[in-house]
Amino acid sequence: EGIPVFTIGDRAFGWLPALEEVTISDGITGSPSSSHMFLNSSLSLGFDSDYEIMDMRINDDSFSNEMVLKDLSKNMPDGIEIFACESPCMKTGEIAYAEYIIDFDSNFSHLIDDWKSFLSFSEIFAEKKTKKGSIKLINLKEFIKEYKVEATGLKLIVCAGSSNNLNPKIILDAFSSKNGKILPPYSITRTMLYNSEMNMFK
């Protein structure tokens, strides 16, 4: 059974019993509870991630980044690693792209040529659900920054901004629909976030 990420955050903040106030992004102030914790970019259900960022401000200068990293790491469950604690360089609105690895469990080699041909098209049309629930037709190539077809799957860099974003599963579904082929089982992992200049978001 999975643990909600905000529940994990609540537990992790247990190492600050004397801390009265934590500010989480954009001036929101309160106790370190789930309602105030803020992740920079949502992740679709069923996806894995190697790179997530949580914004927070601790109103106590005695806590160095190194102290926060060390103590938070001790309170994380197995499988979740806090790998860095740094002062923010960018704002959430600067997120523009996300990198994904789609790894197929088996039988991908016979699809490599088909994928190369599919992704080389100048236009790939597919349906996308809007935030309001309506369906619109989009050209997927306008949302794909970079792609690479590898031996066991795909590496995709796609739009991930607040108003211009693409779930990579739409690309997979479009491939199956166009080629009439059922894809073998796969996993999707987000490995990086970038700004518009393709600098690592941090």
Strand order of the largest sheet: 4-12-7-11-10
Structural class: alpha+beta
Q: How would the global form be characterised?
A: elongated
Largest sheet: 5 strands, mixed
Note the run of SSEs as H and E: HEEEEEEHEHEEEEHE
How many strands?
Answer: 12
Share of helix among residues? 10-25%
Strand proportion: 25-35%
Walk me through the structure.
The structure is a single chain. The radius of gyration is 20 Å and the shape is elongated. The two termini are 30 Å apart. With 202 residues, it is of the alpha+beta class. It has four helices and twelve strands; from the N terminus they run αββββββαβαββββαβ. The strands form four sheets. It has a five-stranded mixed sheet with strand order 4-12-7-11-10, covered by helices on one side. A three-stranded antiparallel sheet has the order 2-1-6, with no helix packed on it. The protein has helices at residues 5-12, 65-74, 112-120, 168-179, and strands at 22-23, 29-30, 38-39, 48-49, 54-55, 57-58, 97-104, 125-129, 135-139, 144-149, 153-159, 186-194.
